[in-house]
Amino acid sequence: MKKTIMAISSSLLLGGIATAQKISFEEYDLDNGLHVILHQDNSAPVVITSVMYHVGSKNENPNKTGFAHFFEHLLFEGTQNIKRGEWFNIVTANGGVNNANTSDDRTYYYEVFPSNNLELALWMESERLMHPIINQVGVDTQKEVIKEEKNSRYDNQPYGKIIEAVKKNLFINHPYRWTTIGSTEHLNSAKLEDFKAFNEKFYIPNNAVLVVAGDFQQKQAKEWIQNYFGPIKKGEKIVRENFTEKPITETIKATHIDPNIQIPMLVTAYRTPSMKNREARALDFISSYLSDGKSSKLYKKIVDDKKKALQIGAVGFNQEDYGMYIIYGLPMAGFNNEDLLGEIDEEILKVQTDLISERDYQKTLNQFENQYVNENSNVEGIAENLAKYYLLFGDVNLVNNEIEIYRSITREEIRDAARKYLNPNQRLILDYIPTPQKNEN
To answer: Coiled-coil ranges per the record (predicted)?
Structure first.
């Protein structure tokens, strides 16, 4: 009886999600190529204005890395009509908040304002696009900001270079081989003309999507969008290179020394397909099933039951061209990396050999359902998803129907994805260790 009640409750929940989370939107293009997406929600007096540019660290010159992340900071410096240092003051004085972030694939800027300040937000984002001030003062200032960020978050942070170590071993040809924050040396050696050229090439209307979401009137919003963004000149068409990697056919073994740690860490990583690939979503099931939280298979087995590790975790990087699935663990005293790897391989082999149970399948699917609800529970999340699905997936409708793709993934597909991508000869094994101690005579 209890199982029946739970099944009915689950069914009602899933049906409610599908109805409650239906997101309406309108999309169109300006003459200069800027794609516009409008999502009207008048339930709260808040509006978000965001612009996502199709430029990330993968679009950089190998000898000039870190530019996309640098511009995340630099384009807050000021414009012809916004004095240097005034951007954040204007936002806060008008009751707003703003931020930006960069990935390997894109850069995203946004402002959240009371809805009566939509025109201000549109003007500011159009200023960033049309009239940025890129001068030596701003470049020098942001170089120091980036250096401090790199030192605190990566160079001097325990285990702060795991992703860097993984990427440079998993990717040989693709620009994913370097980190988003890039190289300090590259930024130091770059000339002002290099930054201006990067801006002119990538920060153009035909390489961006503008999203307005929240409490606004569409007719008025369209007028303002045309007034502020319409006059911006269309940029030269960007010719994008396609970088491919040869399949990994032999285990890659590497070592990274981190002077900031005392406990060695096992890191094993697999290269996975583009996030647009159905198999990538099947691999999401595997990642969640094996390593998402303290109730996952790996944590329960290795940390709770066998007490071989202080910590077991995983992170999946779903990206436009390739992804990564990284599993890491800190061995308990008396155990080593080989012990952890053996336990991990045993659980992966089970997924490759047998179908996961219907109960585990449903539990994992419920996690995706919850994630879907959370991501679309506010206008900020909806705005970013609308931009992402247009720019990186080429299908805005995924904001509503991607969850249906996850629901359609079968247990057989999950097993087949594990067999195809998670084999010992297709991975990196990274010994992430402290600085070796010198023997004293």
So the answer is: none
Distance CA 179, CA 155 (A): 12
Which residue in the block uniquely carries the two structure tokens 């414009």? 79
Q: How far apart are CA 187 and CA 71, in angstroms?
A: 11
Report residue 436 as tokens: 């070796």
Secondary structure class of 318 (helix, strand, coil): coil
> Which residue reads 């096992």 in tokens?
266
Angle between helices 2-20 and 358-375 (to 10 degrees): 30
- 40: CB partners within 8 A, 6+ apart: 24, 213, 214, 215, 216, 218
pLDDT tens for 186-213 read: 999 999 999 999 999 999 999 999 999 9
Contact indicator for 199, 71 with CB cutoff of 8 Å:
yes
Residues 247-283 as b or e (16 or more Cβ within 10 Å = b): ebeeebebebebeebeeebbbbbbbbbebbeebbbbb
Q: Supply 325's token pair.
A: 């699935």
Q: Tell me the DSSP string of 147-166.
A: HHHHIIIIITSTTTTHHHHH
Distance CA 36, CA 39 (A): 10
Residues lower than pLDDT 50 in the chain:
1-20
Say what the pLDDT of residue 9 is.
Answer: 35
Angstrom distance (rounded) from CA 318 to CA 321: 9
Residues 99 and 50: beta-carbon distance below 8 Å: no
CB atoms within 10 A of CB 57: 23
Render the burial of 197-229: b for 16+ CB within 10 Å, e for the rest: ebbeebbbbbbbbbbbbbbbeeeebbebbeebb
In this structure, which amino acid lies at residue 278? R
Is the CATH number of domain 23-229 3.30.830.10? yes
**Three-state DSSP string of 341-354:** HHHHHHHHHHHHHC
How many residues make up the chain in this entry? 441
Q: Which fold has domain 252-433?
A: Cytochrome Bc1 Complex; Chain A, domain 1 (3.30.830)
Half-sphere exposure of 394 (CA within 13 A, CB side): 4
Q: Give pLDDT, residue 440.
A: 54
Beta carbons within 10 angstroms of residue 103's beta carbon:
18
Spans of all domains in the chain: 23-229, 252-433
**In a 3-state reduction of DSSP, which class is residue 432?**
strand
Strands 252-257 and 427-433: parallel
